[in-house]
Amino acid sequence: MRKEEQTEFEKKVLDQFMSGKNLFGKGGAFAPMLKNVIEKALEAEMEGHLNEVQRTKGNKRNGKGKKTIKSGYGTFDIDTPQDRQSSFEPELVKKRQTILADNLSDKIIGLYGLGMSYRDISAHIKEMYDTDISHTVLSQITDRIIPDVKAWQNRPLEPLYCIVWLDAMHYKVKVDGKIEHKALYNILGINKEGYKEILGMYISESEGANFWLQVLTDLNNRGLKDILIACTDNLRGFTDAILSVFPKAQVQLCIVHQIRNSLKYIASKDQKEFMRDLKLVYRATSKEVAEDNLLDLEEKWGDKYPVVIESWQRNWEQLSQYFQYTEPIRKIIYTTNAVEGFHRQVRKVTKTKGAFTNDMALLKLVYLATKNIEKKWTSPLHNWSLTVQQLYIKFGERIPLVLNANSFGASPKGIGTTDRV
């Protein structure tokens, strides 16, 4: 490069750098250099392809084609070598490949996982990398995670989870051109080390005990053999479905769901007084005290609201399981707040979607949102070392309690970390 050309090149680089223009995109100062490097690499690949065997078969060069490449450095055109028999398969820029850099694909999938629409992603990529990407290409890129979604759905599970919450979310999905309401079933578990994990997600047309039975059977087939405590809403038949697959599980119905369902049948003028009396039941210090207060509740309100009182009495055994535990464990299991908290975080990502194009589109986005949420689950539940000891006392050998540094803090020097209790 002559000195005048070098000076002009350096000036162009500096001007584009100071103005924030992409140096590698169309018109970028470095674009010719990147184009030249890629084309030379492709020429070397072609030379290696046209070996003696290929030439014996009559294969040889057959001119060049053109291809527009989109990358994290912008968009640019390259000349691609061709052979007469079309058997050349380049490694650097594969046939029909339009996205050169995997890091750009990773960025697109990351933006999609944050809930951005294809339109917003396309605009962002254009602004940041001076690259135009169609919605079709964006969809093809996000489809790359489908094998990951399927593998994650079918991954093996631990044989025991101490506490499991089961609940469903509801979304609109297009089916044969029509909008249908679908239930997305989510299962949140706590393993014996106290860490949260989404065990699975499943889609059905509606929430029901029959489909929950299929979900529980799938969890069992994937290796889950025992659940200590299962926390659910008050869906009819749910408890029977759980016990049919995990007969030793202790089922705790959500107190909050029961209260909400009760208030639907209480006149607005009575709700404040009724709730004051009801709190004496579910906030009692023991099950015996709670049952005495439930009798008082029936005596006062039974004639006026028999359906509500009958519901509490019919479900009492599953509603009152949490009284067996101390206050910290009660707070964990007496509601489905844990899984509903997960649902709130997922909805922050999915709220911009009016209706999903199909079931997999819904699963893709919720899967990516889940992986982002799970990144924050780096510590066991608060005071888990105390909680797991109570569970061990309650459930015995069903939960193999292991003394280690993670459970009780760093062990003193010289004390083993794998002594089984």
From TrEMBL:
DNA-binding among keywords: yes
**Where does the record place the region Disordered?**
54-76
Q: PROSITE patterns of this UniProt entry?
A: TRANSPOSASE_MUTATOR
Q: Which domain of life is it from?
A: Bacteria
Q: Which Pfam families match?
A: Transposase_mut
Feature: compositional bias, Basic residues: 57-69
Q: Which UniProt keywords apply?
A: DNA recombination, DNA-binding, Transposable element, Transposition
Family as reported in the entry's similarity comment: Belongs to the transposase mutator family.
Main role?
Answer: Required for the transposition of the insertion element.
The name under which this protein is listed is Mutator family transposase
